């Protein structure tokens, strides 16, 4: 079995360590079990008090099921190595996947009920008793150190009874640092497979997308960026090259001729939206303003979303979305799950009725304010889904962009940008008129005065009793 523990301790900014349970969406008084493709993950809390809280995840890998996977990769990929290997006992890409599945909301940094918690830096301690470090015991420090962790990597002997045999390729890994929980989990998700230099599943373009989403904020400036990208992407040069190109593109958001530094914010926005949809049990989704289909592609990889529709007013953007999604090459079953439609958020479209959720991610600010009432009628009255998610820039944050002139918008196509108060007032009018409740959260690095760069409203339709 593979053991992973994470401990939070109380500080002035985080006075109750047991709030870790809220952040992880896992109650400290319960033992929970999750079925994964490679085995079973069990989550429990060895301790939970105001001063210190520890969550433990035990990953019980099924070696027979693992051996059946035709996508097995690694130095032990020979016939006997499929059955006799370290996978059931040491940290690996399987642990990283378990973290992403079991703690998906914490990974995305979303928590509707206590919005300040995901943005709070916590004193954290991570332990993995057996972790491959293929590259030497110093490799964990080279990978995690630049990200703000104090690293203790103690080499494990090949055989404690025969010291002359020396050390193995494994370490007992401890990480100590003060970070947001989302950042800590993202570091682990990306770097554990890099330490191991083995992935238990096929690595394709989807993995390149994940790397940009999870590490886009810090990878380009990391001293081991080349090693990280190469190992994470199973040494596939074409994928590594595509990630490098996209990181360069994502580091600036053009505002006329003025670049506004905005690394990784789009990825965090998408992750927050998808995690919220999953938390709310949504199955049928309309992505209004889908553009070239970046979020559609990620939704398609998640079986929980049984029907996905991308909507955009631009025919050329939809054609690019079709190519990104590879619609022509999808199986019939997958093709039934997803479609793209040309339409506008400000006009009623009967094809968009009857879905569980509608997403407007960075859409409303591209609509003339005089047309917002038409958008509201179209989405909340005509489509009338159970859930509506709206993200938009927080105009108060603009003063923190050094190259953005006062009074200008982040993008030349923006018609307006709401302050937090304006956004809440606009959303409040919708709840009164159309029978929804709303909660708000910030996305991105938060400033004590100006808030987060992106603000998100989560509308949930009130159920009308018979």
UniProtKB/TrEMBL annotation:
SUPFAM superfamilies: S-adenosyl-L-methionine-dependent methyltransferases. Its EC number is 2.1.1.386. Residues 286-379 form the Methyltransferase type domain. It holds the Pfam family Hen1_L. It is an enzyme of class 2 (transferase). Signal peptide: none annotated. It comes from the Bacteria. It catalyses: small RNA 3'-end nucleotide + S-adenosyl-L-methionine = small RNA 3'-end 2'-O-methylnucleotide + S-adenosyl-L-homocysteine + H(+). The keyword DNA damage does not apply. Keywords: Magnesium, Metal-binding, Methyltransferase, RNA-binding, RNA-mediated gene silencing, S-adenosyl-L-methionine, Transferase. Residues 4-247 form the Hen1 N-terminal domain. CDD domains: AdoMet_MTases (cd02440). The keyword S-adenosyl-L-methionine applies. Its cofactor is Mg(2+). Belongs to the methyltransferase superfamily. HEN1 family. This is Small RNA 2'-O-methyltransferase.
């Amino acid at each position: 079995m593979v053991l992973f523990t994470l401990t939070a301790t109380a500080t002035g900014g985080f006075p109750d360590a047991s709030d870790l349970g809220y952040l992880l969406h896992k109650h400290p008084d319960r033992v929970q079990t999750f079925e994964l493709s490679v085995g079973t993950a069990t989550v429990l809390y060895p301790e939970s008090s105001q001063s210190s809280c520890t969550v433990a995840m035990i990953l019980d890998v099924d070696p027979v099921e693992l051996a059946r996977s035709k996508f097995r990769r690694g130095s032990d990929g020979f016939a006997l190595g499929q059955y006799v290997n370290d996978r059931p006992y040491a940290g690996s890409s399987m642990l990283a996947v378990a973290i992403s599945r079991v703690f998906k909301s914490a990974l995305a940094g979303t928590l509707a009920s206590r919005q300040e918690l995901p943005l709070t830096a916590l004193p954290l301690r991570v332990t993995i008793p057996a972790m491959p470090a293929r590259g030497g015991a110093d490799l964990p420090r080279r990978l995690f150190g630049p990200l703000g962790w104090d690293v203790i990597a103690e080499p494990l002997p090949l055989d404690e009874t025969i010291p002359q045999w020396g050390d193995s390729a494994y370490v007992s890994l401890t990480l100590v640092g003060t970070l947001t929980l989302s950042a800590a989990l993202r570091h682990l998700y990306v770097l554990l497979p890099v330490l191991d230099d083995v992935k238990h599943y096929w690595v394709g373009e989807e993995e390149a997308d994940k790397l940009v989403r999870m590490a886009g904020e810090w990878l380009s400036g990391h001293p081991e960026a080349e090693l990280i990208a190469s190992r994470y992407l199973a040494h596939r040069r074409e994928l590594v090259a595509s990630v490098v190109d996209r990181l360069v593109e994502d580091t600036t958001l053009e505002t006329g001729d003025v670049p506004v530094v905005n690394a990784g914010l789009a990825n965090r926005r998408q992750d927050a939206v998808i995690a919220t949809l999953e938390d709310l049990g949504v199955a049928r989704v309309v992505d209004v303003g889908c553009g070239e289909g970046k979020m559609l592609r990620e939704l398609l990889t998640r079986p929980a979303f049984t029907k996905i529709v991308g909507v955009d007013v631009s025919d050329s953007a939809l054609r690019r979305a079709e190519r990104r999604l590879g619609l022509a090459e999808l199986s019939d079953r997958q093709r039934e799950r997803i479609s793209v439609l040309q339409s506008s958020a400000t006009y009623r479209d009967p094809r968009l009725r009857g879905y569980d959720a509608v997403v407007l991610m960075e859409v409303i600010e591209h609509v003339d304010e005089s047309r917002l009432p038409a958008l509201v009628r179209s989405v909340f009255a005509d489509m009338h889904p159970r859930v509506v998610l709206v993200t938009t820039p927080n105009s108060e944050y603009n003063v923190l962009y050094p190259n953005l002139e006062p009074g200008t918008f982040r993008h030349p196509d923006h018609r307006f940008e709401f302050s937090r108060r304006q956004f809440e007032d606009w959303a409040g009018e919708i709840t009164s008129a159309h029978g929804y409740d709303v909660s708000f959260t910030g996305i991105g690095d938060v400033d004590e005065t100006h808030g987060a760069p992106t603000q998100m409203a989560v509308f949930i339709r009130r159920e009308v009793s018979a």
